[in-house]
Write a structure and sequence with these properties.
The structure holds three protein chains of three kinds.
Chain A lengths: L6 H11 L5 H18 L23 E2 L9 H5 L10 E3 L6
Chain B lengths: L7 H9 L5 H14 L5 E4 L1 H16 L11 E5 L26 H8 L3 E6 L19 E2 L2 E5 L5 H8 L5 E5 L6 H7 L2 E4 L20 E5 L2 H11 L29 E5 L9 H16 L3 E5 L4 H19 L18 H12 L2 H14 L5 H24 L2 E5 L15 H6 L5 H6 L3 E8 L5 E8 L4 H14 L12
Parallel strand pairs in B: 2-3, 2-6, 9-10, 9-11
Antiparallel strand pairs in B: 1-3, 4-5, 6-8, 7-8, 7-12, 11-13, 12-13
Chain C lengths: L2 E12 L36 E2 H13 L3 E2 L2 E2 L2 E4 L9 E4 L6 E10 L2 E14 L3 E3 L7 E4 L6 E7 L6 H18 L11 E11 L8 E6 L2 H20 L7 E6 L4 E4 L2 H4 L6 E2 L6 E2 L2 H9 L5 H12 L3 H7 L3 H12 L4 H19 L10 H12 L5 H14 L3 H7 L8 H14 L1 H8 L5 H13 L5 H18 L1
Parallel strand pairs in C: 13-14
Antiparallel strand pairs in C: 1-11, 1-12, 3-7, 4-17, 5-6, 5-16, 7-8, 8-11, 9-10, 12-13, 14-15
Helix pairs in contact in C: 2-3, 6-7, 8-9, 8-10, 10-11, 13-15, 13-16, 14-15, 15-16
The chains are: A mainly alpha, B alpha/beta, C alpha+beta.
Chain lengths: 98, 486, 480
């Protein structure tokens, strides 16, 4: 598959990943992605018709827990690592504004 | 008594026999960890270790602990969560993060009377094969400080190989236990996927990650694997029925096993010295009564692509939670939500992590999913099936761990493709979820350790460990220490 | 031009399991912020999900009740997007292999029956809640709701009117309530509906649709549909074009507005969730689920009418809420006569609920106790007045009916001797009135009756007293 690795693609991926790269980094990244994807393109040679997709290394199914409510965690501990909180909730910049 | 001359099992025996106190063993390890000669340690938990050492001593004296590793100090790769101990993944993103809960393996170590003395350096979020992507400095190879220790469990292998700590835990996603063991001359086990709980292991690639032991010899590694393995109600993928129970004793019988040797792994891409040492190991097995048979490993061209597509896809999702809101780095002065997201993530993550997130986002994005991600999952199925067929023929496969020995710091870091190619012999094991042990088998001309791996079928750890015990009884490579100590 | 409105619904029902879908935290509404949370539902590094078996059970039961096919193998996928209410920055949901597909719901509007097809039902986790009341316009994040199990029920675009949508939602929430799968409280957000809506000239191809989110009540759904269809028709009649977009309904303003483009055209990068195993549902599991299904409300109505001789109206009122029909059937199980029991619940019980502001979901009355009272009143052991009083005692204080009526002296006096003694005394005391009666002033009978009852006290059996008095009055005449 021929992928156009251009500024548009990099910007699109930056948006999806919430990352920002400098222009220098972007240029480097473009070259690297071209190399890496070129290497990955080898998969195109393989005939995988009717091959199932394997997302686990094994075929086990059904791992459940029973519906028992357990005591929750101490709120202080939950918030302990928060960059910003008010003792009750995590705080973020407004999620409504722009 | 020089505690670092003892194996972990010997150390525990000495402690239980009253020849040495837990505190002495722990203090010796802390002293070396504090010196941190190889930048293997990111933090040392002195206060809590001393407290624990005293408690464990009481438990041992009261006969309450019956583990063959009771009283032994251990250090953890810094992606394994321990409540109240900083766990950074060697990333600026988690530089100030302290977990509020224990990983399941940490609970198990504590129940076995072991003492976690510190956390070990690594490639950032376990992404890397040289220890150089750490935000807190590169781990130095104990055999040559101008060289890398391998990765991503760089600190784990360096600390164990140099005797700074008798045991370490690492994690292996695409070779991250085996390759640094090979570079540092340590003995490690990558368990079957689902043998050890991942709960509390900060995820890189969920369907490939597995925690495993690193030590100076197979008996110590096997004993540690027994401690950390077993089912866990907190990890759906931990499918093992019951914990392993490997005797720490010496196995001396001939393995009498059928070993496959992948002919095509010894072609152009591999260092001559590595080839010689690994083939010599195969000869050693033959001499011990094993049947060694060559074969051609199929699908080798597709292993690296399939691995990196799957690993990066999962990583891009697993690392999205670092958004500067709940924990981890938040960019000062970012005032809008989008700025907090973008700037915290761009500054909190290093370049290799960001590269893999971008790659992962790409292979999952609409329009490319089928050509990349879906195809990689199908390739994974083919690789898994190929191994299943091989294990109808062989009990295990013997192969090099890495095409080279430890390289110079900075030599490969700017060439991601070359770096990724270094994982050629290890990644398929993770794609198929198989167990493998990594053992030292000699040195190259520069005096750097060479390692090989034995790969087994699903949950065939016991077979691999017996074979490894036989090998280490016949050879002395694993007893060599950096700095000429033996 | 005559326009036809075409709609499809995506309904999110919050499951009323005891714990969340992937951890043991309480799945409860309300609570102080971040008090029903743990490392798992806060998405802390290293945590892993463990699937709550009850969520699968609930999904299977819902699928069966809505005539769906249940997938033998299904799995979870990750839906990736950043938002402060989503702790892991992905939602565990089902895209590639949902648990149920291809069902239908039968509705009736203006006497016309119609089938609304269900495309699929899938399981997913709810997000947390954002509170926008912080000083400085900051957003506070509460993860109590994060990780509560949800079913998303997706219909085909089969709706042609607001009334059809409302009838469907009524039938759907009735079904979920009967299953005990969700409490379906729109105002608390445990039932949420997104409406896909487009308009077209009759008989023509489907138009471009918009998706309306943030609709929080049945009334709001009606308003949102009216607003949006009118908006689209106006645009099209003026020669404009509809943009495919997600629109947010603002019920206070009574209008919808488009959400930012970027949020619409999002690329969610779904992929199979590696931390969870696939779910395999075998025949035995399915059969077991089938056996535990409750009787659907419409089937109950038919049965109430045929078997118990209730009117259509009565049957409808009694099946209006699962707790009401449960109570009714509970009374019957304990021997309550159907008609009298039905009247008791529709009359006295519902009046008491109304007076005390009790919602059906909070109703808790012991059917056995009501059955005893029904029996007592039908066998004339207590008067209607005493019945009412005893029902209140059972309703309000969970009183034991037999003890209560005995202690309060409500059991009717039926001893003939005592009654005739009382009658004799009244006849002697009020001889004037007796004479008036006998002279044809029949009106005084009521007065005399009252005096008899007064002598007998609250427990006097009025029927027996009445006939005894009448007999006595008439007998004296005969003798004279």
């Amino acid at each position: 598959m021929n992928v156009p690795i251009d500024d548009n693609l990099i910007t699109y991926l930056e948006d999806l990943s919430y990352l920002t790269f400098s222009d220098d980094e972007k240029n480097r990244l473009k070259a690297e992605l071209k190399d890496i994807l070129g290497c990955m393109a080898r998969l195109g040679e393989l005939n995988v018709e009717n091959v199932p997709e394997r997302s686990h290394p094994f075929d086990n199914v059904n791992a459940f827990r029973e519906d028992d409510a357990l005591p929750s965690f101490d709120r202080g501990l939950i918030l302990q690592n928060a960059p910003e909180c008010d003792g009750e909730a995590f705080i973020a910049p407004s999620a409504v504004a722009g | 008594m020089m505690t670092h001359d003892l194996s972990a099992l010997e150390l525990s025996r000495a402690i239980c026999a009253g020849k040495l106190s837990v505190l002495e063993a722990v203090s010796a390890a802390i002293r070396l960890a504090r010196q941190n000669e190889h930048n293997a340690f990111l933090s040392v938990a002195e206060e809590s270790s001393v407290r624990r050492a005293k408690k464990v001593q009481e438990q041992i004296n009261a006969g309450e602990i019956h583990s063959p590793l009771a009283g032994v100090p251990i250090a953890l790769k810094d992606n394994i969560s321990a409540a109240g101990t900083k766990t950074t993944c060697a990333s600026k993103m988690l530089g100030g993060y302290t977990p509020v809960y224990n990983a399941t393996v940490v609970d198990k170590l504590e129940r076995a009377g072991m003492i976690v003395i510190g956390k070990l350096n690594m490639d950032e979020f376990a992404m890397g094969g040289s220890g150089e992507t750490s935000a807190f400095g590169t781990v130095l190879n104990p055999w040559d400080k101008s060289r890398v220790a391998g990765g991503s469990s760089a600190g784990s292998a360096a600390a164990a190989a140099s005797g700074e700590v008798p045991l370490a835990l690492g994690s292996d996603t695409g070779g991250s236990i085996r390759q640094p063991c090979s570079f540092c001359g340590a003995t490690g086990i990558k368990p079957t996927y689902g043998a050890v709980s991942r709960y509390g292991l900060i995820a890189y690639a969920s369907s490939l990650d597995q925690i495993g032991p690193i030590a100076m010899n197979i008996n110590d590694s096997a004993a540690l694997l027994s401690v950390i393995s077993g089912p866990d109600g907190k990890d759906s993928t931990c499918i093992i029925d019951k914990a392993f129970d490997f005797p720490g004793g010496e196995e001396n019988q001939s393995p009498g096993v059928k070993i496959g040797l992948p002919r095509n792994y010894f072609g152009d891409g591999i260092d001559e010295d590595v080839k010689i040492a690994v083939l010599a190991a195969a000869k050693e097995f033959e001499a011990a009564g094993a049947v060694v048979e060559e074969f051609d490993m199929p699908l080798t061209d597709y292993m690296i692509p399939a691995y990196y597509i799957i690993a990066c896809a999962e990583a891009s999702s697993n690392l999205s939670r670092y958004d500067g809101l709940k924990y981890g780095y938040r960019k000062d002065g970012a005032n809008t939500l989008v700025d907090v997201y973008r700037h915290s993530r761009s500054e909190g993550f290093g370049i290799e992590v960001k590269r893999r997130i971008m790659l992962g986002s790409f292979v999952l994005s609409s329009g490319y999913y089928d050509a990349y991600y879906k195809k990689a999952l199908q390739t994974r199925a083919l690789i898994k099936d190929a191994y299943s067929k091989l294990f109808e023929r062989f009990d295990m496969i013997l192969s090099p761990v890495a095409p080279t020995t430890a390289y110079k710091i900075g030599e490969n870091i700017d060439d991601p493709v070359k770096m990724y190619m270094g994982d050629i012999f290890t990644v398929s094991v993770n794609l198929a979820g198989l167990p493998a042990v990594s053992l030292p088998c000699g040195f190259d001309k520069e005096g750097l350790p060479v390692g090989f791996q034995l790969i087994g079928d699903f949950f065939a750890e016991e077979k691999l460990i017996r074979a490894a015990q036989v090998y280490q009884n016949l050879t002395d490579h694993h007893t060599k220490r950096p700095g000429g100590r033996c | 031009m005559k326009w036809e409105i075409v709609m499809g619904l995506e309904v999110h029902a919050e499951l009323s399991t005891k714990s969340k879908i992937f951890c043991g935290c309480k799945a409860a509404f309300g609570g102080e912020p971040n008090t029903y949370v743990c490392p798992v539902c806060c998405g802390m590094p290293g945590t892993l999900p463990m699937l709550n078996r009850a969520v699968i059970e609930y999904a299977i039961r819902t699928g069966l009740m809505l005539n769906c096919e249940i997938a033998r193998t299904c799995k979870f996928d990750r839906k990736n997007y950043f938002y402060p209410d989503l702790p892991k920055a992905y939602q565990v949901s089902q895209l590639y292999a949902p648990i149920c597909s291809g069902g239908f719901v039968e509705i009736e509007v203006n006497g016309q029956k119609k089938r609304i097809r269900i495309r699929e039902i899938h399981m997913e986790e709810d997000a947390g809640k954002l509170i926008h009341d912080s000083p400085g316009g900051k957003t506070r994040i509460d993860f109590n709701r994060a990780g509560v199990g949800l079913l998303e029920i997706v219909s085909e675009p089969d709706f042609r009117s607001k009334d059809e949508v409302l009838a469907y939602l009524a039938r759907l929430s009735e079904t979920l309530l009967y299953l005990g799968v969700s409490d379906c409280k729109m105002q608390e957000g445990s039932l949420r509906a997104d409406v896909n809506i487009s308009v077209r000239p009759f008989g023509e191809a489907l138009g471009v649709r918009t998706e309306m989110k943030n609709i929080n009540s049945l009334k709001a759904i009606g308003r949102a549909i009216e607003y949006e269809s009118a908006r689209q028709i106006e645009i099209l009649e003026n020669g404009g074009q509809i943009t495919q977009e997600t629109r947010r309904w603002d019920d206070e303003e009574g209008k919808s507005c488009g959400m930012r483009k970027k949020e619409n055209a999002w690329d969610y990068r779904y992929f199979p969730e590696p931390d969870l195993l696939p779910i395999f549902i075998d025949d035995k599991w399915l059969e077991r689920a089938r056996l535990t299904l409750p009787e659907p409300a419409h089937r109950k109505r038919e049965r109430y009418i045929c078997e118990y001789g209730l009117s259509e109206h009565e049957a409808f009122v009694l099946t209006g809420h699962k707790n009401i029909s449960d109570l009714f059937e509970n009374v019957l199980e304990h021997g309550g006569e159907p008609l009298e029991s039905a009247h008791l619940i529709m009359g006295e019980i519902m009046r008491l609920m109304n007076d005390s502001g009790t919602l059906p979901e909070d109703l808790s009355v012991d059917g056995r106790k009501l059955a005893i009272l029904v029996d007592l009143v039908l066998r004339s052991k207590i008067s209607r007045g005493a019945y009412k009083e005893a029902v209140l005692a059972v309703y309000a204080n969970d009183a034991e009916p037999e003890t209560y009526v005995a202690q309060q002296g409500l059991l009717m006096m039926s001893d003939g001797h005592i009654i005739s003694e009382a009658v004799d005394m009244v006849l002697a005391d009020y001889s004037d009135a007796v004479m008036d009666y006998r002279a044809g002033k029949i009106k005084v009978f009521g007065f005399l009756m009252g005096q008899v009852m007064k002598k007998l006290g609250r427990a006097g059996n009025p029927d027996l007293a009445q006939s005894a008095l009448k007999k006595a009055l008439d007998a004296e005449v005969g003798e004279g």
